[in-house]
Structures are given as C-alpha cells and as structure tokens.
C-alpha cells in the first residue's frame, strides 16, 4: 500500500508498516532533523514551506498524478496537518481524509454547531471572528461569566484564557493578539466556563464503531492545573470500574462522529462533567490521535502503541492481528513535567533517575538544558512520563509527588 505521510511524526512506524512511503516535510525542527539514512527510506521526499500553502500542496499532488503514482492512503497524525490531509485527499481522489471533516473537527465553532444539530450537549459559546471588533457586552450576554477565550482553530489550550468579568474580557480582547502563535489563529470563540471534572476520550474507529475506546480523567482541569498546585496529566480510567461513564461517553462520541462525518480513524475528544448538574458537555474533538504521550499510555495498558493501532486501521488491517496484551500495572496514566516560568532551561530531571522510580514506566524529554521555553500554556511538553500504579488514588498521589520531586528549572533571559 502506498501512503503519503505529512510531517515526521512516528515516521519509523509508518516506514516499517507501509509498503511505499512518500513524505511531505516542512521546515519544522523535527522534519529537518531526519537523518540521511531515514530520508533514503522514503520513495520520494517533497519539501513545503507550510502545510497551509495550497499552491505547494497542489504541486505535490500534481507531481504524483503526472508520474502515475497512485496513493492509497494519507497519514496525518498531528493537529497541524489535518487541513492539508483533507485537501490532498481531495486532489488525489481519496475518501479519507476529507476537508469537511477537517473543518468540523479543527474549528470549534463548527464542532459545536454540528453537535447542537445532533442533540449533543455543549457549553454555551459565541463566535469572535475579529478580536479588535468584538463587543464585550454581546459576548457576556451570550456566554455569561466566567468564560473561556480560545482560538477557534487552536489546540492544546494555546492562547486560551479564563475570564472572570467584563473588565478582564476587555483586557483579554486587547492583549491576546500579541501572543498569538500565528495569524491563522486570529478567529476566536468564547465558551462558557464549566466547573467540574475534565476528561479526554481517545478512540480509533472503523465503520462508525470503535476499535478501542479509552476514557481518561485529567488530574485537574487543564486551565486549573496551570494556575494552581496540581499535576499536569491524566489517569486512564478502567471501564470495569466506570462502566456507566464509558457507556454514556461512547453514545455521545458516536453521535458526534456521525454529525461531523467521522466514520474511521482516530479521534481525541474533550468533555467536561459539570460540577452542579453532573451533565457531560462536549468541549472539542480532533480527528487525530491524542497529543503528548497518550499513545504511550495506551501501550502501557494494552501492549500496542496508540499510533500503531491508528495506522493499522488506516492501512485496512484487521483488529484481531494486533498483539494486545495486559501491561505491568492495572492503572496507568500520563504526566507532564513543566517549568513554572518562561526562560532558558538550566536543569532537567535525569532520565535514569526517573526510570529508576518504581511507578515510572517511560520517560522522554522534548526540551533540554539551554532551550528557551515559553511557559504560557499547559501544553508545554518538556518531560513526559508514563506512570503506573495498583489503584487510581495511588496513581494520582504518585503523579503529584513526582511533579514536586522532579522539577524543570529555568532562568530569565538577559
């Protein structure tokens, strides 16, 4: 099977399991760091300045078509390549991915609009296509306070802020544009702030049915964890202990998928359980595998990496061929170690010390001493740990203890 892979994510996995791999790489550090030996394994490598450049993506499709190369599947693991995957699939005559699904899952306003049409509960929301022209009174009346401002096409809580009243809203509307990662993130959505528990639901689907379906609860809601003393991460809940929650979330996720046009592939769903009412409210969904180390946590539970499962489904494999096996701990989760302020990293935990801890099953660092990091959002992946325990409460205690013991220290610049 011939595949067209966008970006470098899990490239070894793709190279090892697809028959012929064509790569579309941008100028991101990960793509530039691929070794000559790795690049030689691709059937062809295309370089683009951006996955948002329709002209450059069209040129890739044009070359493939005129060479008579018939691509069977497009591999698009990260958030940043969903639109590109849908566009290339359209040009190459494939039914997966699709531009309409990319829009419905990347733009939170479309997600909520389609969800409401399908009777899937969501928090109140309000579209803000232009921050400079936004009317704070209209926003407050539509959503109420407190509220959350986030990019309509954002990811991982980047440029996401909680607003308590009108004065804070006016200030946020004025200052947020200064920290936007890209002009493409300039359209925003205001969303009702939900007090309660926050979950993420990770699944791989075929024909509308899940190959696997896992519910995880954040140790603390992400924005709350970022502003207070809490571990950053989540515990994967066992279905045997949370059968009712699993059943309800499966019903919600299936109905939402149908409304958005998702029939196969990976999804990562974010859901809140309202503190006072117990209602489950959809926040957002992505048509990709979960970020951070979600796939590694899944592997710790069932023996198969989440990305491997998603790729196997994409390549028309049979679920029964995957070597599922129970892990070493009945309860597993993910933990992210992050600095408490922006600056240059001056010290990080030693990986050998982390792995020597009896509850640490895996550790990987994406930033090293000397790197500058902007500690402005919860998705600052520095050191990611997979942890295990005998019970959920033990795992949560362990996560907090690890966060307090193994720290990442930074120093201001200049």
SSE blueprint:
Elements: E1 2-6, H1 11-17, E2 20-25, H2 29-32, H3 36-41, E3 44-47, H4 54-66, E4 73-75, H5 82-92, H6 99-106, H7 108-117, E5 125-128, H8 136-143, E6 147-151, E7 161-163, H9 166-175, E8 188-192, E9 196-206, E10 209-218, H10 222-227, E11 232-237, H11 243-260, E12 265-274, E13 280-286, H12 294-302, H13 306-314, E14 331-337, E15 343-347, H14 351-356, E16 360-365, E17 372-373, E18 383-389, H15 392-405, E19 409-411
Parallel strand pairs: 1-2, 1-4, 2-3
Antiparallel strand pairs: 5-8, 6-7, 6-8, 9-10, 9-12, 10-11, 11-14, 12-13, 14-18, 15-17, 15-19, 16-18
Describe the protein:
This protein has 414 residues and is α+β, with helices and mostly antiparallel strands. The protein has 4 domains: 2-97, 3-Layer(aba) Sandwich (Rossmann fold); 124-192, Dna Ligase, domain 1, CATH 3.30.1490.20; 194-327, ATP-grasp fold, B domain (D-amino Acid Aminotransferase, Chain A, domain 1), CATH 3.30.470; 328-414, 2-Layer Sandwich (D-amino Acid Aminotransferase, Chain A, domain 1), CATH 3.30.470. 34% of the residues lie in helices and 26% in strands. The protein has 15 helices and 19 strands. It has helices at residues 11-17, 29-32, 36-41, 54-66, 82-92, 99-106, 108-117, 136-143, 166-175, 222-227, 243-260, 294-302, 306-314, 351-356, 392-405; strands at 2-6, 20-25, 44-47, 73-75, 125-128, 147-151, 161-163, 188-192, 196-206, 209-218, 232-237, 265-274, 280-286, 331-337, 343-347, 360-365, 372-373, 383-389, 409-411. The strands form 4 sheets. The chain has an 8-stranded antiparallel β-sheet with strand order 13-12-9-10-11-14-18-16, with helices on both faces. Strand 9 and strand 10 (209-218) form a beta hairpin. Helix 6 (99-106) crosses helix 7. The longest helix has 18 residues, at 243-260. The model has no long low-confidence stretch (mean pLDDT 93).
